[in-house]
Amino acid sequence: MNHNQIYLLLNLILRKKNTIISYSYLSKRVQDLSKKFEFLKIVQIQNGALHQKLQEDLNLKYIDIFLSISEFQSKNALKHFAKRAFVVGSLSTENWIKNVKIACDINKFQYDICFICNTKFEKDIRYALNLSLSYILTNKNLSLFLATKSKTNIRQIANYCKDNFKVDIYNHSQISFTKSFTKYSTIENALKAKVIVGVRSTVLYQLGSLGHVIYPIDISEKYGNMSGNLLNININLNPPKELFFEKIKEISTKNGRKKYIDDNFDVLEKLDETLRLKNLPSDNIIKSLEEI
Fold this sequence. Notes:
The chain is built from 12 helices and 9 strands. It has helices spanning 3-14, 28-36, 52-58, 71-80, 91-99, 123-136, 154-165, 185-190, 202-209, 241-251, 254-268, 281-290, and strands spanning 19-22, 41-45, 63-68, 82-87, 111-116, 144-147, 175-177, 193-198, 214-216. The model has no long low-confidence stretch (mean pLDDT 90).
């Protein structure tokens, strides 16, 4: 064991505690302690949607109890890294519901597409942005909102748009982006758009479960293997440009939105099961911890 592992273990023993509770994912070295010492239990509260690559990057191996946002995520955890798993819902979604007006007037959308920007500007994000930007540039009356995060490298996105489209996102009548950040800026801006486009973002799971039109993009080699149950949405996750244009036009209309929700209702409500649960996630988590 290294010094950090010894320090953590001694602290638990001296305090007569046997449980580590985490909202941020624990390092494998901490997980190794749970594997080595049976009295030690690790409880992981899910803070975002997990997919294959993220599980590998986080090196999730030994979690005793996983408190998840959905049945799909629980089953995935049990299959790959958790001994037990329970659906409690999402604390983030609970916070949204309590503080943001989730319902929106479909006659008052400000943008045609809200693009959810991830922290890293990787190949799949670039492809999704390429599709979204190509679409809005077909008609000067269309608009795009870039929902950036505080850690998003906006300069990298700006350079991509300039190099590939000769578009200056800082000075373009059809493009807007987040300029000030709050706990709710992502959802508040997303709710202003007809369609929300992104790549494997937890926000897609949350907004889809809340009844909004999402279009996930996934260009992974094994189609859909990074997108969890987003794959079950009746839509092509790796569309050519023409098909993407056609689908965005369709689901941007009132009838198209209705058909999208009707066709995908069972899938969307299970992306994040917060609204389906009898109690709020915070209450479910407390109850689960009390029963450990």
